[in-house]
Amino acid sequence: MRTVFDSDALSRFGCALSDPTRAEILLILREGRGYPSELADRIGVTRQVLSNHLACLRGCGLVSVSPEGRRSRYRLADPRIAHALTDLVGLVLDVDPACCPAADEQACC
């Protein structure tokens, strides 16, 4: 039986994936834990930009943080997220680019 919580969870996941930087963060964390500075360097964004995206992903319940001394390390909040991402990446979709607004036009998270 589906509930409103199901659609809320999917909406949060979709919101997180709607931004290319957040999607990249999730795909990297699918491989394992990461420090913000390393994630920022790998993606090519500032640490402040990365911090904002990590805050969104934490708010959506998709990533969690573990303090390690003076640093923090991020990981996917649930191993099933990695499986879901792998499944989504494996899909081949025939998408009409006109059907969805550009990422910069979306207000999310």
Automatic annotation (TrEMBL):
Biological process annotations from GO: response to cadmium ion; response to lead ion
GO molecular function, one term: lead ion binding
Residues of the HTH arsR-type domain: 1-96
Superkingdom assignment: Bacteria
PROSITE patterns cross-referenced by the UniProt entry: HTH_ARSR_2
PANTHER family: HTH-TYPE TRANSCRIPTIONAL REGULATOR CMTR, TRANSCRIPTIONAL REGULATOR-RELATED
Name of the protein described by the UniProt record: Transcriptional regulator, ArsR family
